[in-house]
């Protein structure tokens, strides 16, 4: 009943890559939107906003992603919210990614010289226009490299969606591992696919970092 | 039926949970220390005159950075025995965590060394310092000072990563929590408690690193 | 002192988080046969990495004893079967929180599990055995001194050895069967807790004549599990099992996946009658 490890097994693992990419995109989109809000709150002039965002970041950076996903997936139904797995992972990864992106972007916003925003203020620009037209465009340039770097973490992090029943790259490898009793080979295949996804991004991140370093 | 929370069932297990925390802290402390040494050596190798050392260091860093930790730990525990190298679960976990932490630290440290102006090195040579002295006093320490916040973030991530080694039967907080879960079926209670314990530990680590930063890396005020 | 403040802030918020989650007792409601029929979908929690109970075949399709049984059940109800993959460590949580309507997940009836879920009458037997190297002189718990024993976490094998706790044995717990078997083949453990169905599979991977069944621990009875208040739904499931036993479909399923004849089983999933029979002390 045990299968040999052959081409069709390798392909079965490869088919998990779709969900991995989709999960990564969802996490990045959700995390990006909320992360921007968190970064703005963290750099706000109101102390209580800064404090809320600070706690949010501390909580999600201070606990394992595994625990966060578990609490969202099994915790929400207990609190009376019926959620399908896609909604659960969207929430879980959005919370996780937004905390990390929020912190990265906070750093970038603060790296923009203070004089810039003061000058804009003196010119009578509103908060929104100050942020949109002066601070954020400059902060974005600084944040591109670390943001792409975080994408790599996120892609690898989606492997934890397996524990709440998602058949993505890691889970596909696990299913093949148990049908062939060859976990090493199965996980090795998955590792190669992860590498092919992540390595170009890592390289890109490094190149962007260098380019920015030369300009500044 | 409604789910009734009951944290009291966990009370008999508090000693086990505490032991889990201790094991997690120990595992993290050993791996972080080893990872820091590996990271410094790798960062040095990346600047080496010898192409072989540079290539070896980059290959190591890229493989670790671009594959999931679970695969790395499986490879060490299940794969290396095929080559006749066998580790106990805990040793395998420490090896995997150290290599992981080392690769990520190497990148951060390299960034710090790059940030130290080349003039520093030349000034050191002019003062007649030996290469090792130059490295220790006027490259490594200022570099560490610049990157220490980023490095401590990496160390806290290593602490959180330890939760994955339960997959190779190494004992730490997550594996103990899972075992308690299978005995009591109180999944939420146990995972909420575990989450809070992790949170406490990562804060303790972050606080410790801030103290080190203040005591060791702050510039003398006098 | 920023860090003192940040720690305090976190401690307070954590406490509030716990209180909030404790105060709101949520609803994973009792399941009725009507509501499933109305919904048109039966959500079944099954293990998908447990040959021969639930696994993927060469074309990548899920199959196995529990999977086919689940499909049979959905057909009986006139609804569509939808399999949610669960593991031995998260299946109870998946059921209690309403992620699935029923578990057909290689779940043996044990006293502590009876306290948290409601079992229907058993649909199959499952013998728990220990597998070790050919030639090792091990016949029971007392021979395990200095032996490294691997078990999948939370399974009957884990429960059995944790209870018996032989002095000097090292228990190593893994996430699933595949990792446990791999630990045995890689020589990372000397023995594993498993099932008789695994012995030929292990021989196929590791080569014949290396590993064998050492001793049988117990015969457990696997059954459908539902949320505790869903008595009517459990009654339907017990009746379903009785009908399929009588029609010969269940014994045929056993022959196909496990091999041999399906032994006599208790007619209820509740009380002591349904608990495993101990074979070796």
- Contiguous uncertain segments of 5+ residues of chain B: none
Q: State the assembly state of the protein chains.
A: heterotrimer
Largest sheet composition of chain B = none
Parts with pLDDT < 50 across at least 5 consecutive residues of chain C: 1-12, 18-27
The dominant shape of chain C is: globular
Q: Using DSSP, what is the number of strands of chain C?
A: 13
Task: Tell me the fraction of residues in β-strands of chain C, as a range.
Answer: 15-25%
Strand order of the largest sheet of chain C: 9-8-10-7-11-13
For the record, the CATH class of chain B is Mainly Alpha
* Structural class label of chain C: alpha/beta
CATH superfamily of the largest domain in chain C: Periplasmic binding protein-like II
Largest sheet of chain C: 6 strands, mixed
SSE series of chain B: HHHHHHHH
Indicate the overall shape of chain B.
Answer: globular
Helix content of chain C: 25-40%
- The average pLDDT score of chain C comes to 84
Task: Please characterize this protein's 3D structure.
- Chain A: This is Polar amino acid transport system permease protein.
- Chain A: Keywords: Cell membrane, Membrane, Transmembrane, Transmembrane helix, Transport.
- Chain A: It is found in: Cell inner membrane; Cell membrane.
- Chain A: Belongs to the binding-protein-dependent transport system permease family. HisMQ subfamily.
- The complex is a heterotrimer of chains A (216), B (222) and C (281).
- Chain A is mostly helical and 216 residues long.
- Chain A is built from nine helices and no strands.
- The longest helix of chain A is centred in the last third of the chain and has 33 residues, at 183-215.
- The model of chain A has no long low-confidence stretch (mean pLDDT 86).
- Helices cover 76% and strands 0% of the residues of chain B.
- In chain B, helix 1 (14-46) runs antiparallel to helix 2 (51-65), helix 3 (69-79) crosses helix 4 and helix 5 (118-126) runs antiparallel to helix 6 (131-161).
- The longest helix of chain B is centred in the N-terminal third of the chain and has 33 residues, at 14-46.
- The model of chain B has no long low-confidence stretch (mean pLDDT 88).
- By secondary structure, chain C is of the alpha/beta class.
- Chain C has a six-stranded mixed beta sheet, sandwiched between helices.
- In chain C, strand 2 and strand 3 (62-63) form a beta hairpin.
- Chain C has two domains: 33-123 and 223-278, Periplasmic binding protein-like II (D-Maltodextrin-Binding Protein, domain 2), CATH 3.40.190; 127-219, D-Maltodextrin-Binding Protein, domain 2.
- At the A-C interface, helix 3, helix 4 and helix 8 of A face helix 1, strand 2, strand 4, helix 7 and helix 8 of C.
